[in-house]
Amino acid sequence: MNSTTSSSAETVRSAREVFTAISGLIVGMFVAVLSGTVVSTSLPVIIAELGGTQAQYTWVITASLLATAVTTPIWGKLSDLVDRKVLVQISLILFTVGTVIAGFSTDTNMLIAVRVIQGVGVGGLMSLVMVAVALIISPRERGKYMGVVGGIMALATIGGPLLGGFLTDTLGWRSNFFVGVPFAIVALILLQFTLHLPKPQNVKVSIDYLGIVLLMVGVSGLLIWVSMGGSQFEWDSVTSYALGIGSAVAIVAFVIVEMLVKEPIIPMTLFRNRTFTLSVLASIAIGVSMFATSVFLAQYFQLARGATPTESGLMTIPMIIGQMGASIIIGQLVSRYGKWKGWMMLGSVLALIGVTLMATLRYDTPFPLVAVYMFVLGAGLGMVMQNLTLIVQNDTPPQQLGAASSGVNFFRTIAGTIGVTIMGSILATNVATYMKDGLGKFVPKSPDEIDALKHLATGDVPNMGSLPDSIRTVVESSYGHGIADAFLIAIPLAVIGVIAIAFIRNKPLSTKNSAEQLRENAEESAIEVAGAEVGAATGSIRVISEDDDRVRDVQEPVR
């Protein structure tokens, strides 16, 4: 009786109390996403100044995403085993250190290397924040708060480029890497004093080190093979076969190891859960659309439309409004009425329409149309992105909460990473083809035109402001068409996302948070053990009727 009363008392929390409890998590997630996206608008300027190529441009993004993808399930598994609060703080510190070092980069290779450190920290924050929110808030109420979290993520994801463009034009691109440091310090202080999470069950920690190595080798090799094949080495070459086959063997070995070890990073038993499996498929589509938009919109506005970094950031405002507005409003509606399926179906259809429209972009597409395209895609992503994690957590045992939450984030990130890598390769190839066709019969008439052609021949990302008008229009047209071609990859994946969400079981949202479910499970286990002990002593056996689940006692003589 007392435990029930206590549980009920803990369940009733005001919105202010909940936001106080998760304030450090929200600020931590904001600084992670902001620091990762604030450089996206200035990235064309950064790569041009550091002398990087289009392939290196993609790898600056891919390196961080890869590290995030590989470490997300590891952080998630650790959260089921060790102190979650400490893990959140460690991940935030790692991310901040990597970000500051990136600000002192002297060449593109150094920038790519330190982005890996950033990615490791982001992997922890993306996974652990969702786990912590699930432990504090029930699924029914979670939609309201996840909507706010999703809105803040959307603000940082799409608003970061706006801030980055302003900083690049006023203080220089290096300032982008330092802007998040004060927020990180505030987040660490808030985490220390406001975040109180239940300790994981007191069990012996067993970490799957072999699985970690196989996962890193398999995923890294796959991305290197996809991104460099056809440019750094021929597809039909020993290097290509070694990377392709080696990556496949490592991934297959990882799956086998996960089936055998005691504490797998990604428990294969999760795939027996229909909700988890279909959510993974849907998250793949969402991941590609989300990351591709973040990566390639800045290039479109600056390289295809000739915008400055600040103008590029301002042009993304329709995306901010669509994604942030849908995330917050739909989150509130899900919490109020407990209905999520219809909103997710609508969101997945809007995401499909959005990426299809993005695939029609050209360098001279009227901006009002581009704004509509971005708003539609942003609204679709906002409706689906956070709710995918919500419904998985709602249909997962509390003991596997960390692995399940991080699993969805893992597949979303890894799909986004592979998708962005493939799209970047398509962009680089098609832009080169379109420029070759457009400039094939062009005869340079001035030293500036000759210098511009020589620079374009190197494959480096061009500085549009320095190109002569006679060449600039061709380059802008090439990038506009090439970026649209890259979005074609996202269309079939978006279709799969719609189908997957349509078949997810429409399970009502629970009104109990994961911490309460864990306590109830522990109490039920204790009652069952006590009942068994009494039954053994008295000869009474507890029998459960399969028809109505009623419990009755049957007396048997003790022999």
Structure description:
The protein has 559 residues and is mostly helical. It has 20 helices and two strands. Strands 1-2 form a two-stranded antiparallel ribbon. Helix 4 (54-79) runs antiparallel to helix 9 (209-228) and helix 14 (341-358) packs antiparallel against helix 19. The longest helix is centred in the last third of the chain and has 39 residues, at 401-439. It starts with a helix and ends with a strand. The model is unreliable at 1-11 and 521-559 (pLDDT under 50).
Q: What is the 3D shape?
A: globular
Mean pLDDT: 78
Q: What is the helical fraction, as a range of percent? A: over 70%
N→C terminal distance:
36 Å
Q: How many DSSP H or I helices?
A: 20
Helix/strand-derived category reads mainly alpha
Oligomer: single chain
Strands in their spatial order, largest beta sheet: 1-2
Radius of gyration: 26 Å
Number of strands: 2
Q: What is the helix/strand order?
A: HHHHHHHHHHHHHHHHHHHHEE
Strand content: under 5%
What about the largest sheet? 2 strands, antiparallel
- List low-confidence stretches: 1-11, 521-559
What tags apply to this protein structure?
20 helices; disordered C terminus; 559 residues
In short:
This protein is an all-alpha fold. It has helices at 2-11, 15-37, 43-50, 54-79, 84-102, 108-136, 139-170, 181-194, 209-228, 238-260, 274-304, 309-315, 317-337, 341-358, 367-394, 401-439, 447-457, 469-487, 490-502, 514-538; strands at 540-544, 551-555.
